[in-house]
Amino acid sequence: MNTAPRTALTIAGSDSGGGAGVQADLRAFFANGVHGLVALTAVTVQNSLGVQGFTEIPVDVVTAQIKAVASDMGVHAAKTGMLATAEIIQAVAKTLDEVHIGRDTGTPFVVDPVAASMTGHALLREEALEAIRTELFPRATLITPNLDEVRLLTGITVTDPATQRAAAEALLEFGSRWVLVKGGHMRDTDTCVDLLYDGTEPIELTGARINTENTHGGGDTMASAITSSLAKGADVPTAVAEAKRFIERCVAEAYPLGAGVGPVSPFWRLAD
Ligand SMILES: Nc1ncnc2c1ncn2[C@@H]1O[C@H](COP(=O)(O)OP(=O)(O)OP(=O)(O)O)[C@@H](O)[C@H]1O
Ligand SMILES: Cc1ncc(COP(=O)(O)O)c(N)n1
Protein backbone atom coordinates (compact mmCIF):
# COMPACT_ATOMS: atom_id res chain seq x y z
CA MET A 1 0.00 0.00 0.00
CA ASN A 2 1.20 3.54 -0.74
CA THR A 3 1.95 5.81 2.20
CA ALA A 4 0.59 9.36 2.42
CA PRO A 5 2.96 12.27 1.82
CA ARG A 6 3.35 15.00 4.43
CA THR A 7 0.54 17.58 4.50
CA ALA A 8 0.54 21.38 4.46
CA LEU A 9 -2.52 23.57 5.14
CA THR A 10 -3.07 26.95 3.50
CA ILE A 11 -5.59 29.37 5.02
CA ALA A 12 -5.98 31.92 2.22
CA GLY A 13 -8.07 33.43 -0.57
CA SER A 14 -8.75 32.25 -4.11
CA ASP A 15 -7.25 34.04 -7.13
CA SER A 16 -9.47 33.46 -10.18
CA GLY A 17 -6.39 34.12 -12.31
CA GLY A 18 -4.67 31.09 -10.77
CA GLY A 19 -1.31 32.77 -10.07
CA ALA A 20 -1.55 33.83 -6.40
CA GLY A 21 -3.57 32.85 -3.32
CA VAL A 22 -4.51 29.20 -2.70
CA GLN A 23 -3.83 28.38 -6.33
CA ALA A 24 -0.17 29.46 -5.96
CA ASP A 25 0.03 27.66 -2.63
CA LEU A 26 -1.24 24.38 -4.09
CA ARG A 27 1.13 24.68 -7.06
CA ALA A 28 4.05 25.14 -4.65
CA PHE A 29 2.93 22.35 -2.30
CA PHE A 30 2.55 19.96 -5.24
CA ALA A 31 5.91 20.91 -6.71
CA ASN A 32 7.53 20.28 -3.33
CA GLY A 33 5.93 16.88 -2.81
CA VAL A 34 3.47 17.64 -0.03
CA HIS A 35 -0.30 17.13 -0.02
CA GLY A 36 -2.05 20.53 0.09
CA LEU A 37 -5.04 21.16 2.37
CA VAL A 38 -7.17 24.32 2.04
CA ALA A 39 -9.25 26.54 4.30
CA LEU A 40 -10.63 29.16 1.90
CA THR A 41 -11.14 32.64 3.43
CA ALA A 42 -12.27 34.74 0.47
CA VAL A 43 -13.02 34.60 -3.23
CA THR A 44 -11.33 37.33 -5.26
CA VAL A 45 -12.33 38.42 -8.75
CA GLN A 46 -8.88 38.84 -10.22
CA ASN A 47 -6.82 38.66 -13.40
CA SER A 48 -3.38 39.77 -14.55
CA LEU A 49 -4.51 43.42 -14.39
CA GLY A 50 -5.55 43.38 -10.76
CA VAL A 51 -8.30 42.61 -8.25
CA GLN A 52 -11.80 43.73 -9.21
CA GLY A 53 -13.34 42.79 -5.87
CA PHE A 54 -13.72 40.07 -3.27
CA THR A 55 -16.20 38.50 -0.95
CA GLU A 56 -15.22 36.73 2.24
CA ILE A 57 -16.30 33.24 3.30
CA PRO A 58 -18.49 33.09 6.45
CA VAL A 59 -16.28 32.79 9.55
CA ASP A 60 -17.80 29.52 10.73
CA VAL A 61 -17.11 27.95 7.32
CA VAL A 62 -13.45 29.06 7.50
CA THR A 63 -12.94 27.50 10.92
CA ALA A 64 -14.92 24.35 10.02
CA GLN A 65 -12.55 23.72 7.09
CA ILE A 66 -9.53 23.90 9.41
CA LYS A 67 -11.11 21.57 11.97
CA ALA A 68 -12.27 19.10 9.30
CA VAL A 69 -8.84 18.52 7.80
CA ALA A 70 -6.87 18.77 11.07
CA SER A 71 -9.06 16.22 12.88
CA ASP A 72 -9.06 13.66 10.06
CA MET A 73 -5.96 14.04 7.90
CA GLY A 74 -3.46 15.73 10.19
CA VAL A 75 -1.48 18.89 9.40
CA HIS A 76 2.34 18.86 9.39
CA ALA A 77 2.68 22.63 8.80
CA ALA A 78 0.32 25.52 8.03
CA LYS A 79 0.42 28.98 6.50
CA THR A 80 -1.88 31.96 6.14
CA GLY A 81 -2.23 34.29 3.16
CA MET A 82 -5.18 36.63 2.49
CA LEU A 83 -7.42 36.67 5.58
CA ALA A 84 -9.70 39.57 4.58
CA THR A 85 -11.19 40.63 7.94
CA ALA A 86 -10.35 40.98 11.65
CA GLU A 87 -13.23 38.63 12.43
CA ILE A 88 -11.70 35.85 10.30
CA ILE A 89 -8.24 36.46 11.81
CA GLN A 90 -9.55 36.21 15.39
CA ALA A 91 -11.47 33.02 14.62
CA VAL A 92 -8.50 31.44 12.81
CA ALA A 93 -6.22 32.21 15.78
CA LYS A 94 -8.63 30.56 18.23
CA THR A 95 -9.10 27.52 15.97
CA LEU A 96 -5.36 27.03 15.47
CA ASP A 97 -4.99 26.85 19.26
CA GLU A 98 -7.75 24.23 19.39
CA VAL A 99 -6.11 22.02 16.75
CA HIS A 100 -2.58 22.60 18.14
CA ILE A 101 -0.98 24.45 15.23
CA GLY A 102 1.52 27.23 16.04
CA ARG A 103 4.99 28.12 17.24
CA ASP A 104 4.82 26.29 20.58
CA THR A 105 2.93 23.19 19.41
CA GLY A 106 5.38 21.20 17.25
CA THR A 107 3.34 22.03 14.11
CA PRO A 108 5.05 24.98 12.40
CA PHE A 109 2.92 27.95 11.35
CA VAL A 110 3.98 30.55 8.75
CA VAL A 111 2.18 33.92 8.57
CA ASP A 112 2.45 35.79 5.26
CA PRO A 113 0.82 39.10 6.28
CA VAL A 114 -0.90 39.78 2.94
CA ALA A 115 -2.36 43.30 2.96
CA ALA A 116 -2.63 44.14 -0.73
CA SER A 117 -2.02 42.63 -4.16
CA MET A 118 1.13 43.67 -6.02
CA THR A 119 -1.18 45.81 -8.17
CA GLY A 120 -2.02 47.81 -5.04
CA HIS A 121 -5.55 46.51 -4.38
CA ALA A 122 -6.48 45.97 -0.72
CA LEU A 123 -6.97 42.33 0.29
CA LEU A 124 -7.47 43.11 3.97
CA ARG A 125 -10.04 45.41 5.57
CA GLU A 126 -8.20 48.33 7.17
CA GLU A 127 -8.78 47.47 10.82
CA ALA A 128 -7.53 43.91 10.30
CA LEU A 129 -3.80 44.65 10.19
CA GLU A 130 -3.80 45.16 13.95
CA ALA A 131 -5.43 41.74 14.37
CA ILE A 132 -2.68 40.10 12.28
CA ARG A 133 -0.10 41.76 14.53
CA THR A 134 -1.71 40.87 17.86
CA GLU A 135 -3.51 37.57 17.11
CA LEU A 136 -1.28 35.84 14.56
CA PHE A 137 2.30 37.04 14.99
CA PRO A 138 2.65 35.70 18.57
CA ARG A 139 1.45 32.28 17.32
CA ALA A 140 3.77 32.22 14.30
CA THR A 141 6.90 30.15 13.82
CA LEU A 142 7.86 32.57 11.03
CA ILE A 143 6.39 35.74 9.49
CA THR A 144 7.25 36.70 5.89
CA PRO A 145 6.37 40.36 5.15
CA ASN A 146 7.41 42.15 1.96
CA LEU A 147 8.71 45.70 2.17
CA ASP A 148 5.26 47.33 1.77
CA GLU A 149 3.91 45.18 4.60
CA VAL A 150 7.00 46.02 6.71
CA ARG A 151 6.21 49.72 6.30
CA LEU A 152 2.54 49.24 7.23
CA LEU A 153 3.43 47.13 10.27
CA THR A 154 6.42 49.05 11.66
CA GLY A 155 6.56 52.43 9.90
CA ILE A 156 10.10 51.56 8.73
CA THR A 157 10.98 52.16 5.07
CA VAL A 158 13.61 49.61 4.08
CA THR A 159 16.17 50.93 1.60
CA ASP A 160 19.41 49.16 2.53
CA PRO A 161 20.86 46.38 4.74
CA ALA A 162 20.80 48.56 7.87
CA THR A 163 17.10 49.44 7.60
CA GLN A 164 16.28 45.83 6.66
CA ARG A 165 17.99 44.70 9.88
CA ALA A 166 16.17 47.39 11.92
CA ALA A 167 12.85 46.24 10.46
CA ALA A 168 13.60 42.61 11.36
CA GLU A 169 14.32 43.64 14.96
CA ALA A 170 11.13 45.71 15.19
CA LEU A 171 9.00 42.90 13.72
CA LEU A 172 10.40 40.30 16.11
CA GLU A 173 8.98 42.39 18.98
CA PHE A 174 5.48 41.35 17.86
CA GLY A 175 6.20 37.84 19.11
CA SER A 176 6.95 35.45 16.25
CA ARG A 177 9.82 32.97 16.66
CA TRP A 178 11.46 34.05 13.36
CA VAL A 179 11.10 36.95 10.90
CA LEU A 180 11.92 36.93 7.17
CA VAL A 181 12.10 40.43 5.67
CA LYS A 182 11.83 39.79 1.92
CA GLY A 183 13.86 42.10 -0.28
CA GLY A 184 12.11 41.52 -3.62
CA HIS A 185 10.91 45.14 -3.76
CA MET A 186 14.37 46.72 -3.24
CA ARG A 187 14.60 47.31 -6.95
CA ASP A 188 17.86 49.24 -7.47
CA THR A 189 20.14 46.30 -6.66
CA ASP A 190 21.27 43.40 -8.84
CA THR A 191 20.72 40.91 -6.02
CA CYS A 192 17.58 39.94 -4.08
CA VAL A 193 18.45 39.71 -0.40
CA ASP A 194 15.99 38.30 2.15
CA LEU A 195 16.91 38.68 5.85
CA LEU A 196 16.07 35.91 8.33
CA TYR A 197 16.25 36.77 12.02
CA ASP A 198 15.42 35.15 15.36
CA GLY A 199 17.09 37.65 17.70
CA THR A 200 20.52 36.02 17.44
CA GLU A 201 22.68 36.23 14.30
CA PRO A 202 20.82 37.59 11.23
CA ILE A 203 21.03 35.27 8.20
CA GLU A 204 21.23 36.91 4.76
CA LEU A 205 19.85 34.89 1.85
CA THR A 206 21.22 36.34 -1.33
CA GLY A 207 20.05 35.44 -4.82
CA ALA A 208 20.31 36.96 -8.27
CA ARG A 209 17.71 39.58 -9.21
CA ILE A 210 15.98 38.24 -12.30
CA ASN A 211 14.88 40.83 -14.82
CA THR A 212 11.16 40.18 -15.25
CA GLU A 213 7.86 41.97 -14.62
CA ASN A 214 6.07 38.65 -14.13
CA THR A 215 6.27 38.11 -10.36
CA HIS A 216 2.58 37.60 -9.54
CA GLY A 217 2.24 35.09 -6.70
CA GLY A 218 5.93 35.29 -5.74
CA GLY A 219 5.27 35.94 -2.05
CA ASP A 220 2.67 33.17 -1.76
CA THR A 221 4.93 30.72 -3.60
CA MET A 222 7.88 31.57 -1.32
CA ALA A 223 5.83 31.15 1.90
CA SER A 224 4.32 27.88 0.62
CA ALA A 225 7.71 26.48 -0.35
CA ILE A 226 8.95 27.28 3.19
CA THR A 227 5.83 25.63 4.65
CA SER A 228 6.43 22.54 2.47
CA SER A 229 9.98 22.14 3.78
CA LEU A 230 8.81 22.65 7.37
CA ALA A 231 6.10 20.01 6.81
CA LYS A 232 8.84 17.62 5.73
CA GLY A 233 10.72 18.28 8.97
CA ALA A 234 13.32 20.92 8.03
CA ASP A 235 14.30 23.56 10.58
CA VAL A 236 13.50 27.20 9.75
CA PRO A 237 16.91 28.28 8.31
CA THR A 238 17.03 25.14 6.13
CA ALA A 239 13.41 25.58 4.98
CA VAL A 240 13.98 29.23 4.05
CA ALA A 241 17.24 28.45 2.21
CA GLU A 242 15.52 25.66 0.23
CA ALA A 243 12.58 27.95 -0.58
CA LYS A 244 14.89 30.76 -1.69
CA ARG A 245 16.53 28.45 -4.25
CA PHE A 246 13.06 27.29 -5.34
CA ILE A 247 11.53 30.78 -5.76
CA GLU A 248 14.54 32.09 -7.66
CA ARG A 249 14.00 29.51 -10.37
CA CYS A 250 10.20 30.07 -10.26
CA VAL A 251 10.81 33.79 -10.95
CA ALA A 252 13.25 32.91 -13.74
CA GLU A 253 10.61 30.65 -15.33
CA ALA A 254 7.69 33.13 -14.85
CA TYR A 255 5.57 33.48 -17.96
CA PRO A 256 3.38 36.20 -19.49
CA LEU A 257 -0.36 35.49 -19.21
CA GLY A 258 -2.96 38.18 -19.88
CA ALA A 259 -2.24 41.84 -20.55
CA GLY A 260 -0.79 42.57 -17.10
CA VAL A 261 1.52 40.75 -14.69
CA GLY A 262 2.12 37.03 -15.28
CA PRO A 263 2.69 34.39 -12.58
CA VAL A 264 5.90 32.86 -11.25
CA SER A 265 6.12 29.23 -12.28
CA PRO A 266 6.95 26.05 -10.37
CA PHE A 267 6.55 23.89 -13.51
CA TRP A 268 10.33 23.45 -13.91
CA ARG A 269 10.38 21.27 -10.79
CA LEU A 270 8.08 18.75 -12.48
CA ALA A 271 10.26 18.56 -15.60
CA ASP A 272 13.47 17.85 -13.67
N1 LIG B 1 13.10 39.76 -9.63
C1 LIG B 1 13.38 38.81 -8.74
N2 LIG B 1 14.41 37.95 -8.94
C2 LIG B 1 14.72 36.98 -8.06
N3 LIG B 1 14.03 36.79 -6.90
C3 LIG B 1 13.00 37.61 -6.64
C4 LIG B 1 12.60 38.65 -7.53
N4 LIG B 1 11.53 39.31 -7.00
C5 LIG B 1 11.27 38.69 -5.84
N5 LIG B 1 12.15 37.69 -5.59
C6 LIG B 1 12.17 36.79 -4.45
O1 LIG B 1 10.87 36.24 -4.35
C7 LIG B 1 10.46 36.17 -2.98
C8 LIG B 1 9.22 37.02 -2.80
O2 LIG B 1 9.67 38.34 -2.63
P1 LIG B 1 8.85 39.69 -2.65
O3 LIG B 1 9.62 40.64 -1.81
O4 LIG B 1 8.63 40.07 -4.07
O5 LIG B 1 7.50 39.24 -1.95
P2 LIG B 1 6.03 39.68 -2.21
O6 LIG B 1 5.98 41.14 -2.48
O7 LIG B 1 5.24 39.16 -1.07
O8 LIG B 1 5.67 38.92 -3.52
P3 LIG B 1 4.56 39.30 -4.60
O9 LIG B 1 5.35 39.52 -5.86
O10 LIG B 1 3.69 38.10 -4.65
O11 LIG B 1 3.83 40.52 -4.13
C9 LIG B 1 11.67 36.61 -2.18
O12 LIG B 1 12.45 35.49 -1.82
C10 LIG B 1 12.42 37.51 -3.13
O13 LIG B 1 13.79 37.60 -2.80
C1 LIG C 1 -6.10 35.72 -3.24
C2 LIG C 1 -4.81 36.44 -3.26
N1 LIG C 1 -3.90 36.22 -2.30
C3 LIG C 1 -2.71 36.87 -2.30
C4 LIG C 1 -2.39 37.76 -3.30
C5 LIG C 1 -1.07 38.49 -3.29
O1 LIG C 1 -0.25 38.14 -4.38
P1 LIG C 1 0.49 39.27 -5.26
O2 LIG C 1 1.19 40.19 -4.28
O3 LIG C 1 1.44 38.52 -6.13
O4 LIG C 1 -0.60 40.00 -6.03
C6 LIG C 1 -3.35 37.97 -4.34
N2 LIG C 1 -3.14 38.82 -5.35
N3 LIG C 1 -4.56 37.30 -4.28
Automatic annotation (TrEMBL):
This is Hydroxymethylpyrimidine/phosphomethylpyrimidine kinase. Keywords: ATP-binding, Kinase, Nucleotide-binding, Thiamine biosynthesis, Transferase. GO terms for cellular component: cytosol. It comes from the Bacteria. InterPro entries: Carboh/pur_kinase_PfkB_CS (IPR002173), HMP/HMP-P_kinase_dom (IPR004399), PM/HMP-P_kinase-1 (IPR013749), Ribokinase-like (IPR029056). Residues 15-264 form the Pyridoxamine kinase/Phosphomethylpyrimidine kinase domain. Catalyzes the phosphorylation of hydroxymethylpyrimidine phosphate (HMP-P) to HMP-PP, and of HMP to HMP-P. PANTHER family: HYDROXYMETHYLPYRIMIDINE_PHOSPHOMETHYLPYRIMIDINE KINASE THI20-RELATED, PHOSPHOMETHYLPYRIMIDINE KINASE. It holds the Pfam family Phos_pyr_kin. SUPFAM superfamilies: Ribokinase-like (SSF53613). It catalyses: 4-amino-2-methyl-5-(phosphooxymethyl)pyrimidine + ATP = 4-amino-2-methyl-5-(diphosphooxymethyl)pyrimidine + ADP; 4-amino-5-hydroxymethyl-2-methylpyrimidine + ATP = 4-amino-2-methyl-5-(phosphooxymethyl)pyrimidine + ADP + H(+). Pathway: Cofactor biosynthesis; thiamine diphosphate biosynthesis; 4-amino-2-methyl-5-diphosphomethylpyrimidine from 5-amino-1-(5-phospho-D-ribosyl)imidazole: step 3/3. The lineage of its organism: Bacteria, Bacillati, Actinomycetota, Actinomycetes, Pseudonocardiales. GO terms for molecular function: ATP binding; hydroxymethylpyrimidine kinase activity; phosphomethylpyrimidine kinase activity.
